[in-house]
TrEMBL record:
Subcellular location field: Membrane
Membrane topology, as annotated: Single-pass membrane protein
UniProt pathway: Plant hormone degradation; abscisic acid degradation
Taxonomic lineage: Eukaryota, Viridiplantae, Streptophyta, Embryophyta, Tracheophyta
PROSITE patterns attached to this UniProt entry: CYTOCHROME_P450
Record GO terms (molecular function): (+)-abscisic acid 8'-hydroxylase activity; heme binding; iron ion binding
The protein's required cofactors: heme
Transmembrane intervals: 6-28
Name listed for the protein in its UniProt record: (+)-abscisic acid 8'-hydroxylase
Organism field: Rubroshorea leprosula
Keyword Magnesium applies: no
């Protein structure tokens, strides 16, 4: 009997044994005898990815929730997941036990945005970045840029007059310019075109296959990302030489006593542009859609904004908006809230369990993804009666804690929420008081890219109101 005739069948047997064992562990982990949440994992590796992506993902989530309840397991994009859709479970994952669930993104996205960006971290480094970001975006800081935001809003709207436009595209330009203002201050105009050119190439490859070979979209994006980092490094060096005293995000990063490296600053600036632009532009696009579909709501918003305009227009001259003016817009604010609830542009977020976690008698195994489903919570009949109806008046009463999370919850919740609301209010002030718009073509569908968006980005025609219509 030679060596290979014994060794080969034996090693084959050992291989099959371990394969079987690991499959068994994977699908039926038996840690502490706790059961996994109900649900199905689908086929090995592909899991239920096709079921999720072959239809509107929200239909998939809603059907699962109906069948299994507010916590269920599934398997998508090669990862076993637990999905949760109750306010209590979302609070558990995002707030009270946040340390047990780390943020998780595909490696290609981390490379593209920058590994040292705030989203990808937990612990001390995250806390330090968060303090610096919040310092630049809290009301005290952004109060000073209201009139600059207003100039950007006016320039944007004037450039759209009389044109057939894709709302989302134009809103992206607006939110990009506001993001640059909040990061680089008024000097942003000096770098706007270069940053825009690179950022637009970067975003084209963001959802592409992560193949970094010459000619691929991913490769072009990675090159654009490097170019962006070079531009940011140049801006940092100019600021250091000129010793400018500013009140923007870059200053907050550069002024940190413990010091961030230029690379860390660049990663976080690119990250903030990414977090700030498409999100706010999607919400604005939905607002225009809902207002045009709800003329009575548009009427009361317009009246609220006209009253503010009249109160400032004492000598026939339009005065710049102030932070205080934006605090007198309760109806418009409710429209923003209701839009964020109905549209739920971020249907869910991702976390990963850093150890085995028990929740409500179920096991969430270490390494599994956990997805709080914001949209399911925002569309729960028990929490928001008649949930599909666009009804801003429901926000006359503050929603119960952990039931309304358009900006997330807990230590990773959105530090840019005040800026996002401010730029929406300012744009809506000028839009409703000076312009009319009508949607063009069919606009009942929703597309995901990755944020929920009205079909084709909502084509509209925008025109200036005549004096008598104002
Ligand atoms: C309407 C517009 C916006 C929406 C709906 C939105 C939503 C969110 C949500 C849900 C999160 C938490 C994600 C998670 O927990 O995984 C988040 C995080 C974040 N957002 Fe926003 N956001 C908006 C605008 C902005 C703006 C304007 C900025 C910056 C100026 C910004 C900067 C960030 C940053 C830096 C984070 C990461 C925070 C951290 O990891 O600690 N966002 N955003």
């Amino acid at each position: 009997m030679d060596f290979t005739s014994v060794f080969l069948p034996l090693s084959f047997f050992v291989f099959i044994f371990f394969l079987f064992q690991s499959l068994l562990n994977f699908f039926f982990p038996n840690r502490g005898n706790l059961p996994l949440p109900p649900g199905s994992l689908g086929w090995p590796y592909v899991g239920e990815t096709f079921q999720l992506y072959s239809k509107n993902p929200n239909v998939f989530f809603a059907a699962k929730q109906k069948r299994y309840g507010s916590i269920f397991k599934t398997h998508i994009l090669g990862c076993p997941c637990v999905m949760i859709s109750s306010p209590e479970a979302a609070k558990f994952v995002l707030v009270t036990r946040a340390h047990l669930f780390k943020p998780t993104f595909p490696a290609s996205k981390e490379r593209m945005l920058g590994k040292q960006a705030i989203f990808f971290h937990q612990g001390d480094y995250h806390a330090k970045l968060r303090k610096l970001v919040l310092r630049a975006f809290m009301p005290e800081a952004i109060k000073n840029i209201v009139s600059d935001v207003e100039s950007i809003a006016n320039d944007t709207l004037q450039s759209l007059e009389g044109r057939l436009i894709t709302t989302f595209q134009e809103m992206k330009t607006y939110t990009f310019n506001v993001a640059l203002l909040s990061i680089f201050g008024k000097e942003e105009v000096l770098y706007r075109e270069d940053l825009k050119r690179c950022y637009y190439i970067l975003e084209q490859g963001y959802n592409s296959m992560p193949i970094n070979l010459p000619g691929t979209l991913f490769n072009k994006s990675m090159k654009a990302r490097k170019e962006l980092a070079r531009i940011v490094a140049k801006i940092i060096s100019t600021r250091r030489q000129m010793k400018l005293d500013r009140n923007d995000l870059l200053e907050s990063f550069m002024g940190d006593k413990e010091g961030l490296t230029d690379e860390q600053i660049a990663d976080n600036i690119i990250g903030v542009i990414f977090a700030a632009r498409d999100t706010t532009a999607s919400v604005l696009t939905w607002i225009l859609k809902y207002l045009s579909e709800n003329p009575t709501v548009l009427q009361v918003v317009t009246e609220e904004q006209e009253a503010i305009m009249r109160s400032k227009d004492k000598c026939g001259e339009e005065k710049a908006l102030t932070w205080a003016d934006t605090r007198k817009m309760p109806i418009t604010s409710r429209v923003i809230h209701e839009t964020m609830r109905v549209a739920s542009i971020l249907s869910f977020t991702f976390r990963e369990a850093v150890e085995d976690v028990e929740y409500e008698g179920y096991l969430i195994p270490k390494g599994w993804k956990v997805l709080p489903l914001f949209r399911n919570i925002h569309h729960s009949q028990e929490i928001f009666p008649d949930p599909e109806k666009f009804d801003p008046s429901r926000f006359e009463v503050a929603p119960k804690p952990n039931t309304f999370m358009p900006f997330g919850n807990g230590i990773h919740s959105c530090p840019g929420n005040e800026l996002a609301k401010l730029e929406m209010l300012v744009l809506l002030h000028h839009l409703t008081t000076k312009y009319r718009w009508s949607t063009v073509g069919a606009n009942s569908g929703i597309q995901y890219g990755p944020f929920a968006l009205p079909q084709n980005g909502l084509p509209i025609r925008l025109s200036k109101k005549s004096q008598t219509q104002k």
